[in-house]
Write a structure and sequence with these properties.
Length: 420
């Protein structure tokens, strides 16, 4: 099947998920122990940032693969094009709401919005101010959306041509132009959106760390969706070889994320600079379940589940690991954002006890995650239904269809059966 049909029951499912999310956001307005709708805005921003970043990293990987003359993913590239299409509408709207909330001072989540006589915040005010926050957010996400739309349009236009590299080189030029833009802008926007929640703190590794979290989440979601679509009879040319490579990406970048986590922690702990160590001190002591659970979900589980070659081909096992990783990195962003937001809401004081929606994710937070996931999936499925599943004139299509990992043993034999 070269055309995907977005079924009514799928629309109802995603609509129901979005309904749960809206209900939970409404409940968070009334079930807030802090005032200023802090729980609502922190939940909204947490999920908006998380899913916008996933779309951006999927777009980045497509552009990087095209630039590097890679073609192994071509048989399912339309899935990635549909996933990063989240940038072309929903992400712009969500980020626009964030900008309005911060610029209008509705969302009391950033300490730097009211620096008072804080010398550190005054010193950083040339970057940490509502004007730069608004301009940077709109321009950067707008640029991502522009390049995403351009690359997707060129990919679809390629279907109407004669194939070959003459047209494909246009995609490569635009991809190469996008990579440095994404590289610099993603770091800037991560500093602005996430790191500035703890405005006294900084880390030179933070953008890499947060970007790796986005990236591995995108690969995990790709695995989940591909396995689902193949169960429905779509993407017939995707074999165990492709699934194996996606499993390797989830495995490898889980380790890379852990390397960055440890490096950031170790260097800051070793230097023992007060304004830096406080970030980890508070999270280790005040949020131990989240702090250590983060490592269990995002390193220990994928490491031991996916370490063997054959588990990266067993779809049930890979599906389980990918679900854990996707939810685990949502928890990772919860831990990046919520403690700093709580600190701001309490005017620098420590919470005397557990605070609903901040100490641990509650049902409202999980429900909000389900709602945003439903929105992301709805847009992905909708975009996918509007394009052929096979990029028939992509010069790498045949190479991708015959993609072979080749690592020996019984698993290779199993992969050969998958291929046939």
């Amino acid at each position: 099947m070269n055309n995907f049909t977005f079924e009514s029951k799928q629309k109802m499912l995603f609509g129901g998920m979005m309904g749960v999310g809206v209900l939970c956001l409404i409940l968070s307005l009334f079930m807030d122990d802090l005032g200023h709708q802090t729980r609502f805005w922190s939940n909204f921003m947490h999920n908006s940032i998380f899913f916008t970043g996933i779309a951006a990293m999927v777009l980045f990987f497509v552009a990087a693969s095209v630039t590097a003359w890679g073609g192994w993913y071509t048989v399912f590239k339309r899935l990635w094009e549909s996933m990063y299409s989240f940038l072309l509408g929903p992400a712009l709207i969500l980020v626009g709401i964030m900008v309005v909330a911060v610029y209008g001072d509705f969302a009391h989540v950033y300490h730097w919005m009211h620096p008072g006589d804080d010398e550190i915040l005054i010193h950083k005010s040339s970057f940490l101010n509502k004007n730069w926050y608004a301009i940077a957010s709109v321009v950067i996400v707008g640029a991502w959306a522009f390049f995403g739309n351009k690359l997707r349009s060129l990919s679809l236009a390629e279907d109407n041509g004669n194939g070959g590299f003459a047209f494909h080189n246009k995609i490569r030029v635009w991809s190469a132009a996008f990579l440095p833009i994404l590289g610099f802008s993603s770091a800037a926007i991560i500093w602005q959106w996430v790191m500035s929640v703890d405005a006294h703190w900084y880390s030179t590794l933070f953008a890499w760390y947060s970007g790796a979290s986005w990236f591995v989440s995108g690969m995990a979601l790709t695995v989940i969706l591909l396995i689902y679509f193949q169960g429905k009879g779509y993407f017939a040319k995707v074999t165990g070889e492709h699934i194996h490579d996606l499993g390797k990406l989830v495995f490898a970048f889980s380790i890379f994320w852990t390397y960055l986590w440890f490096s950031q922690f170790m260097l800051i702990w070793y230097a023992n600079v007060g304004e830096e160590t406080i970030y980890f001190y508070e999270r280790m002591n005040d949020y131990p379940v989240l702090f250590f659970g983060n490592l269990i979900l995002n390193f220990i589980t994928p490491f031991f589940v996916l370490m063997r070659n054959d588990t990266k081909r067993k779809r049930g096992t890979l599906l389980f690991a990918s679900c854990v990783v996707l939810f685990g990195h949502w928890i990772d962003y919860f831990l990046m954002l919520k403690p700093g937001i709580l600190h701001t809401a309490l005017h620098g004081e420590h919470a005397s006890g557990a605070v609903a929606g901040f100490s641990l994710p509650g049902l409202i937070e999980v429900g909000t995650f389900i709602g945003f996931l439903g929105l992301f999936l709805f847009m992905t499925f909708r975009r996918l239904s509007k394009m052929p599943l096979e990029a028939k004139n992509d010069p790498y299509l045949d190479e991708s269809a015959h993609h072979h990992v080749g690592y020996g043993g019984a698993a290779m034999h199993h992969g050969a059966h998958d291929h046939h």
